[in-house]
Amino acid sequence: MINFETILADFEQEQCFSASRLSTTLKQLVLQSTHVPYPASGQTYQRWQILANVAATDLTLAKWFESHLDALSILHELEYEADPHKLWAVWAAEGGSNPVKYRDGYCSGIKPWCSGAALVDYGLMTYRDHNDQSQLCILDMQQSTININDEDWHAVGMQATQTAKISLQHTAVKNIGQPQQYLTRAGFWHGAAGVAACWYGATIRLASFLQQACQEKSNPFRMMYLGKVSHTLAVTRQYFKDIAEQIDQSPDENHELKIRILRAQTELAAHTVLEQVGQALGAKPYCENAIFARLAADLPVFIRQSHAAFDLERIGQLALEETSTWTL
Prior knowledge:
The protein has 328 residues and is of the alpha+beta class. It contains eleven helices and eight strands. It comes from Acinetobacter populi.
């Protein structure tokens, strides 16, 4: 991971979070894409470590890079050769009054929630076909029939992700895979765990500020908060290890229940750390430390890729079907 560590260390050392610096660092990360293992390849945990390290530095970088790596994994799973040194993204959000429609190799309509829209070379985009099934296609962003509109992106957290609506007017696309295959393939859930690895990376970086404060000037209250944070993170880290091992042992299984639980546990850990570190350290790091302030603002927005009660409901449904969920 030496190349990744060097790139991230240089980014932090400059203390420059401008759009141009983020873009430059992203390009450096993308050039290392071939060194990132695919999910279920026997090195799933190592893949998650890379994502967590990027997220611990900056969540905008993590959002873009995770999406790029996810696109490459999907294309690999669907046996499509892609240039890993071009910047890819996965855009699968749906809805709106003018959803994307496909006809004879062309798409028209609006695709919402496209992060990095102005940076990306190719988007892996979903649309609903005439049978209302999810279809995946490749969208070459170098087309004059594409309009990028970020006027509705008012976020404070994750503000720098350049998330936009993309309007397509008879824009050429290339279908990949079969209808519903994007959702039904095992890798869909393996990729969802990678997003949780990003949440976890930012979470442990925030916790490290409390650890450092306890080393510099300890008191019983800070140590109590550190104890709770350490307990939560240790449980979550071990679950990542266990799930990665199970994915590598059974790569053709989607492990949906376990990964949904992993995501819920990681979200819980993030909320716990945000609350406990804030209570222990007060306002100072939010106001005087650029890295802490950005992560603390970005993480609550990023973890909303979790669907909260809807995910918990699905966990309950799956737990009814898998009776060994609770047994030792």
